[in-house]
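Can't paste images in this forum, so I'm doing it all in text. The chain is below; anyone willing to post the predicted structure tokens underneath?
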Amino acid sequence: MDCTLRGARGRRQGTRALAEFTEPIRRFSEKANLPAILRRPTGHTAVFSAGVPGLFFPSSKPGWTLLVVAMAMTRSATAQDATPRPAAIVRGVTLSRGLPVAGVNVFDVETLEGSVTNESGRFTIAVGDSTRTTMHLVAKAIGYTAFDTTIILAKLSTVSLVIRLSQLSALMPISVMAGRYTATAARTSTLTPIEVANTPGSNADISGAIKTLPGVQNVDEGSGLFVRGGDFTETRMFVDGAPLFSAYQFEAPTGSVAGTINPFLTSAITFASGGFGAEWGNALSGVVDLRTQGRPAQRFTNINASILGITLSKGVAFPHGLGVSITAGATDLRAMLALNGNPRAFSPAPHGQTYSGLAAWEYRRTGVVKIFALLQKNAFGAPVQDPASLSTFASDRTSDVVVASWSDSIAKWRPFASVSTSGFNRDESKGAYDLSSNIRSFQARFLSKFVFTDRVQATTGFEVERLSADFRGTFPANQYNPVAGAPTITSGLKAAAPRTALHASIDTRPTSSTELILGIRRTNSGFAVASTVDPRLSFAWMPRGQLTFTWSWGVYHQSVDPAFLDRLTSGAPTLPEQRATMAIAGTQWGEGVQQLRVEGWTKQYHNLVGLTRSYATVAGLSGKARGADLFARTVAPLGTTARFTWSLSDSRRDDANTKWDAPAAFDVTSSMTVILQKEWKSGWGGGVAVKRATGRPFTDVASATFDANRNIYVPVYGDPFAQRLPVFNRTDITVSKQLPLGANRFASTYMGINNLLNQINTFSYTWSQNYTERLPVRSTVSRTFFVGANLVLLARP
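Text version of the structure:
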């Protein structure tokens, strides 16, 4: 007898017959807890085997179906008699705003035992290990916040849960092309390495990509991050919790050229433009948190060659969760300068080497131990025009960091710990100026999150650091006479001091649409005259739909750079820690490809330090800043995505020379960035970035008198920072192509043009010998072509 129905008519009849006879069985099987394969919806060609090897029966025949179900139930009952019952059963239901949520992945982090909720939002998990007393349970679904908690397994067997999920747009990160902007109280943005590489004009530099985010002013074309009215020294960069003292390569009096860390050494880049939590300290304006890659998934070789240099990487995955990767690279800008011109007349051209290594041990699914090491050397020379003469600025720098870190998820505990050493050595000279410095940090850092419930979690931690500094320098006695052989003064500092910090915070969700974070941080530094206490508060509220309001307030302290301490006129090398009090309020509408965000902020500064023109340290300065940021993202014509960032800022500080209130040296009142990007299915991609900013202020020279004894003109300065440089303009484009070369290798090529329109931007002014003529100093980047390729070779599986 034919067991199937032929043709379309037969298929329709079979489907109806299946529905009529299987619906009661499906309902019964759910109540009886039958295996999932008996309960899943099937078409007429599906087959029930129900754990009976070798038997296949067309599901359109109700008689066969009932027979197979009966056999399966008998086999299941026999198996249950022969096999020990689970130690516990975890049952529950997932709800959002009182309604069930289907398709939620609920699982135990440590064993990956789990289930997917059905149409009624229900799930069941059998715990196989009878010795377990707790379970680290996570529930995840697209569009909802993740539920994360630890439950106690009762001796009786069954644990019943009600999991309430909040919609993602209320309190979780919102994804955009060049950063995930958070509508939570945490107030951070994150970048991936690919997003850094695809940002037009960034040259795959982390700092260059961050400069396109809201809250960062385009003060100049260098890599310094000037965040919300602050100097670039007020934004700190960390790698796996270890401080980086040199976040920029090839830093000269006329600006920096590139950042320190290759983005492809990182797994995530988190940037906080103020309002950051109590776990971060020693920063007044912003924090960049770099997390390194984990264990390589397989053996690989990576070759990256461009007009800027070449980098080779090798990774090996060993058994038992072990893996190692190493990278070696050389940078030399001679080829790029030969192709594009050398407006700064670098001699020698910027060049350097970078070596890094990573060893990781993933000893279980949630636990990893890593050791990361980085060594970087760079040097260059550049002429600097002073009124007295033309001199050459020579720089030779070495920076290093070694950090061992550990992270895990143990029941309700989410610990992270690191121990590190990082250092920075530099030798710089220009005319009568000659400085040799060495700074080194030894630090231990521990942080632990504890999840009480899905609505409450607490974070506590501490830092212990020993900082040593060794400075020896010769400086011109008068800034206007810096030539070799001019009168000089000398100074030096060799000191070491500890710094300790304790912090605690609590993250609560009072309702499904609100989040409140309260934190406090206490710091004691041997380079400061007294300990400091920083209270911090952040809040987010989503009243409806995709509308979110955020607010934060906090006090932030930062130790004085030891470089200032060697110029103190008297006393021990200590000063009060610099202080900033910052408040931010904002609103955001939309998510994904359509969103709009507006924020306003204000800052008050106390105990700032500065240097006079005679290189003397002045302490106790004050300042204030306020501004607003706008960010918008949308789909533009021709399938492109468009991002628009506009920052307004008014930053004022006491001038170190006159003590007058004046615009800050880096005050940029308006900064705008527009980015258009598009990717094609063929593997081509491209983007264009347009940047415009008002010029930063400078102090003009009102007149000059001639000193016959020293045969030099002495300038008479006007009001501090009363004049401004011309408006800054720049347009950058990038084009890339992804090239699959087979299952185990692929390549990408890229090219770009920075400053496409060859717009002349002024970095600063110098003067003629008698100060009657003001001479512009052109910025680093004229129209610059660059090209490169990246080849990845994977081991065969």
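The domain at 88-165 is CATH 2.60.40.1120 (Immunoglobulin-like). The longest strand covers residues 456-476.
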